[in-house]
Amino acid sequence: MGNSGGTPPSFYAVLLISLLSAGESLVSNDTKTCMYAVTVETTCTKGADTSNHVSLRFGDTNSNDIVVRRLNSMHVKRVDPLEPEVLDDMSRKPFQACMVDQFQVTGKCVTSPVCYVYLKLAGADDWRPGFVKVRSLEGPHLSSGYFYFRRVLPRHVWHGFDTCGGEVTPFGIKHHRKVFAASKHFRHKLN
User: Fold this and answer.
1) Distance of CA 19 to the CA centre of its chain
2) Is 109 within 8 Å of 34 (Cβ atoms)?
3) E strands present in 80-115
4) Which of 43, 86, 92 is nearest to 72 (CA)?
5) Alpha helices, DSSP H only, in the chain?
6) Domains along the chain?
7) 112 Cβ partners below 8 Å, 6+ apart?
8) CA 147 to mean position of chain CA atoms
9) Tell me, what DSSP letter sits at residue 3?
10) Given this model, what pLDDT does residue 100 score?
11) Alpha-carbon distance 188 to 191, whole Å?
12) Cα-flanking dihedrals φ and ψ of residue 10, to 5°?
């Protein structure tokens, strides 16, 4: 049976493969992720360290919200605050007293500077973080300033700071409070 002027089947196969690969590139552009270096200091107060799970939430004014459920697992290196030397070769747990830890986080891309940071502690012991700084590896203009905690973190709730725009009032700057919806799992437990 010969081809009587019709299009060969191999043409359709090539066309289908081209359309599928074009569709994959369209999907990957919508789900672009960015890298962040998160620096967390634990204060030197006695009992300031923790081995509990710590969650992190940060974002920008454009509703780009990045949530890291277990920040502990993203630990990259421990940095001695008094020495420029990085202490990578020592395997230590993060969030030790008097230490600065760095974490590598991948998440949604921010489009304006990071202006809020919240931490959540899950477990039985206390933790007293000093500061948190989020550095965007996409550009320094998207990085945050320092967020100073310097107090014992409450457990099982998001606690942090929001410096995203505010309204000027006669009593000072009024910041709009962020309310985070409960997860589906938590809502299910309530019902």
Assistant:
1) 34
2) yes
3) 100-108
4) 92
5) 9-30, 184-190
6) 33-167 (2.60.60.20)
7) 60, 61, 62, 142
8) 14
9) -
10) 93
11) 5
12) -65, -30
Q: If you average pLDDT over every residue of the chain, what do you get? A: 78
- CA 108, 117, 140, 99 dihedral sign is negative
As given in the structure block, the two tokens for residue 108 are: 């949604």
- Do 94 and 79 meet the contact criterion of CB atoms below 8 Å apart? no
> What's the pTM value of the predicted model, to 2 decimals?
0.69
Nearest CA among 104, 29, 107 for reference residue 65: 107
Q: Are 161 and 147 in contact (CB under 8 A)?
A: yes
Q: In what order do the strands lie in the sheet with 159-162?
A: 65-68, 53-59, 116-122, 159-162
Burial of residue 126 (CB within 10 Å: 0-12, 13-18, 19+) is middle
Give 61-110 pLDDT, tens digit per residue: 988 999 999 998 888 876 655 555 554 555 578 999 999 999 999 999 99
Tokens coding 33 = 């992720």
How far apart are alpha carbons 6 and 13 in whole angstroms?
15
* Identity of the amino acid at 1: M
DSSP-based three-state secondary structure for 57 = strand
